[in-house]
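Sequence in, structure out. First:
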Amino acid sequence: MTEMIAADENAWWFILSEGKLVALDKGDFIPFGNIEELPFPEGITANKVLLGKYQEQPCYLIEVENSLDVGLGEYVTLRSLLGRMDDLLFDMAGRAFQISLFYKTHQFCGQCGQTMQKIDWEIAMKCYHCQHRTYPRVSPCIIVAIRKHKKILLALHNRHQKSDRPIYTTLAGFTEAGETLEACVEREVFEEVGLKIKNIQYVTSQPWPFPHSLMMGFTADYDSGEINVDPHELIAANWYDIDDLPLIPRHGTIARKLIEKTLKRCR
């Protein structure tokens, strides 16, 4: 979705290239200002995409090649900004990455194979040969923190293992077709650690643009069973005393929020 930009219009600029984002080294990190004041190379805004608004100001996605020097900031990973910037602004940055990925991976129609075209009034791609239309993919996931008396269940995932600083976190998994969120919570917990749970409570959600998940967070209480780790998903899982925790996810993650909420419930 594109629109004309007034010369004196202030906007947030999400400039992406090769999986990284241009960020300043202080403040809100994301470049902000109008075209005339910013040192953008000529023509860089020609293929901008309107993402939405933050603090009542428009946000634009710009995709450039070969990490083009845009005259300000440096290219950084999105993960490096997690927990360091306002949550809503981080969500907008995540939206930029997801929209960029959508356009890159939907160049051809999945129904007839013809070339897809951008729709200029919404973020979508359309095949004018068979009229098939696609929208950005969102993958629903659950994530759950589980309490047992004064302890919390934490697991070391295969994808989180680091030789020097392993991070222990909550259980999570993708929702399957035709499955409710609560059923997904029960299934994922039983599949990954062999436990039955009860008192499942929804807490909050978080867009998770790695690459296009929507995490829906829950808390639950232990019901029955002994820990039996699925080696395809986890390296280890244990009950940890609330005053003796291993290294847990950083602030800004939904996992950290669920862990902290569960710790309060344990006290």
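Second:
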Amino acid sequence: MNADDRKGLAGAAHVATRLPAQDLDRARRFYSERLGLEPVDERPGGLLYRCGDTEFALFRSTGASPGTFTQMAWTVEDIETVVSELGRRGVVFEEVDVPGFRTRGGIAEVEGNYPSTGARGERGAWFRDSEGNLLGIGQPVV
């Protein structure tokens, strides 16, 4: 990699998601009790989590998420098992029934989603955290 390749975001070490939280204590409980995640670092204004080789942070915010789009998602190998386990922990999955898009048991079949992954589609499920952030789970369909 030459010096020109490192200019801008292309040379960034990694990408990390930041999610707003009006109540960090409430958010911490949700991520721990419902998702089984514990922060790897915490500061007065935020919590840092790691999943595999990626990370995301919750930061104290007076604003609220609109929750109208997926703000962060995990890729899993067995979405049915993950949805079942999270449901057992009290996570409520979104149910959608609109033309061309329907969930069954919280899981939707999405044709042709994310072609860059080499998959022909994806199975997806969505839920909201304690702060109203819309989060997703996806399993590529190969």
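Remark: The chain is about 15% helix and 35% strand.
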